Amino acid sequence: MADGELGAREAERIAWDVIVVGTGMGGGVLGHRLAQAGRKVLYVEKGRSTLPGVPGTIRSAVPELAEPSATRSAATYFDALARAGRCTDEVEDVSGRLTKRFTPFIGSGTGGSSALYGMVCERFFAQDFTPRQNFVDPGDSSVPEAWPVSYEQMAPWYAEAEQLLGVRGQPDPLRPESAWVGLPAAPPFSKDNEPLVEYLTRQGLHPYHLPMACDYTDGCATCQTYLCGRSCKNDAARNCVEPAVGQHGAGLLAGCRVVRLEADRRRVQRVICEYRGELLALQSSVVVLAAGALATPVLLLNSRSGEWPRGLANGSDWVGRNLMRHLLDPIEVWPEPGSGIMAANKEIGLNDYYFFGGQKYGTVQSFGAIPPMEWVTNRPGPQGKALRLLGPAVRKVYERFFTGGLILAAMMEDLPYLDNRVQLSQAPGSDGRQRMRIRYRLHTNEIERHTAFLRLLRELLSPFRTRALGSGRNNANLGHVCGTCRFGADPATSVLDPQNRAHEVDNLYVVDSSFFPSSAGLNPSLTVAANALRVAVHINQECFAS
User: Fold this and answer.
1) CA-based end-to-end distance of the chain
2) How many CA within 13 A on the CB side of residue 353?
3) 460-477 mean pLDDT
4) How do strand 90-93 and strand 435-439 relate by DSSP bridges?
5) How far is Cα 42 from Cα 246, in angstroms, rounded to an integer?
6) What span, in angstroms and rounded, lies between the C-alpha atoms of 508 and 290?
7) 269: phi then psi, degrees, rounded to nearest 5
């Protein structure tokens, strides 16, 4: 087939070396590296294939804009989401008095969320690997003293991941450990970003050009939130899954949801999937979960059996716990009177408040222009319909008060807590979509730091017209979810060992952002990719030693 997909029964007949569940940054990178090494690798992807040659794929715009008529009913809307590489799962948020249900804005399909990401691929600070010391009072957080790997151990894998993903940008002047990295230069700051960069520099701060996994071809729009139509976005699909399948013999089953793993006390024996209305039973020597930090714990919890009454690999009862998702606060700024910024321009990074005044907050990044109004109005349901009926009036208000500014995103680190978690839904969806339950509340530490961080930003931006566009307290923003299958040395307080293998299951690994013991305050993509390279070498050497 054009996208390299196998037939289902053919996949069942093969004894695979490695089955990789999920094709995002962790699974895509790991599978590519093992296929390069000659291992028989099968990617199993819940979403659609959006590799080149697949008809119906929506590129170059979010589906709400690309196919507005398809978003008038739930069925056609979810079909459009799937063809655009977007998730159609339903999250059931039971954190408050009333249950809320929503579809998270994350990726599902070849490349996972990396196919939609803004391409920021940035190393963590060295201090991020010793997280507990960075907070004045972590309270009842389970944040550890240290990750089981150090920055020095991760540095060569960071360098390899940067090369694999074609990362370009400037070093952060506040990080001496990254000064020697020597990334290729990104283009100069755009005219939209220059006034703010100059202002920040005059204030004695240290803006820099974000490291981006982008080729910047002519007319590059940086394609944040949608699939790239120009082949300039370097993501797990383009840089890993496509060559693994096309050049190194890996198999791909897209549109195939893993529903459970069948295991004895020490090993996964079979991977049970739903594929086009049928059940498949796949077998491999090693199983790697990379379905994302929401779906991976759900899969483990759903793999209960007599041997594993609390869920597979869950002797610690930590599977699904320690949910983190960053606190993201978009702020629109008009750097000059009458600003008319309409182009994508994710360029500026600012870490002067990452560690500030003895406390840790997070990063600030430019995020591009505000999306067109149709992104909100072209959705099914009563809210979208009401906004469409008010079309001219809503458009006038939107254009007057919300367009033309540059969006900055304040990204603050949240801490892990045992009571913030992903769980199985008690009422599975009736429309065929996967449903999962989350409980997530902010604790005193996050509330106080969040208030202080936003106060600092308001003071910094006080000379300009600004508008807050949302709140980091909103659980619907799950773009950087992590931590739900922590790795660590102690089986009582972690799910995975330092090599990302389940403590209790010899042939089971997890390489998506579930393994994070802390969320840090930066984009997770490069750390996920670097770690996947590290684990791939371990699997190749330890699991297939001749």
Assistant:
1) 33
2) 23
3) 89
4) parallel
5) 13
6) 11
7) -100, -40
Closest CA to 56 of 2, 111, 116, 118: 2
Classify each residue of 119-150 as buried b or exposed e, where b means 16 or more C-beta atoms within 10 Å of its C-beta: bbbbbbbbbbbbbeebbeebeebbbbeebbbe
CB 224 within 8 A of CB 369: no
List the CATH code of the domain at 8-50+85-371+404-543.
3.50.50.60
CB 452 within 8 Å of CB 444:
no
Tokens of 541: 């050497």
Instruction: Give the residue among 331, 369, 342 at the shortest CA–CA distance from 469.
Output: 331
Two tokens at 514? 């579930």
pLDDT by residue (tens digit) across 391-445?
677 777 776 667 788 899 999 999 999 999 999 998 766 577 888 999 999 999 9
Q: What is the DSSP string of 167-179?
A: -B-PPPTT-GGGT
Structure token digits, residue 89: 């799962």
Contacts of 230 (CB under 8 A, 6+ apart): 60, 217, 219, 220, 221, 223
Judged by DSSP in three states, 81 sits in: helix
- pLDDT tens sequence across 269-328: 999 999 998 999 999 999 999 999 999 999 999 999 999 999 999 999 999 999 999 999
Residues 402 and 280: their CA atoms lie apart, in Å, by 49
**Token couple for 338:** 């009458």
Write the CA distances from 511 to 160, 305, 533, integer angstroms: 17, 24, 10
CB-hemisphere CA count at 13 Å for 212? 29
Q: Characterize 454-469 residue by residue with b for buried, 16 or more Cβ atoms within 10 angstroms of its Cβ, and e for exposed.
A: bebbeebbeebebeeb
Q: What distance in Å separates the CA atoms of residue 89 and residue 103, rounded to the nearest whole number?
A: 6
Cβ atoms of residues 102 and 305 within 8 Å: no
Kindly list the domain boundaries of the chain, sorted by start residue.
8-50+85-371+404-543
What is the chain's Cα-based Rg? 22
Contact 251, 4 (CB under 8 A): yes
Residue tagged 């804009």 (tokens): 65
Question: How confident is the model over 163-180, as pLDDT tens digits?
Answer: 999 999 998 999 988 777
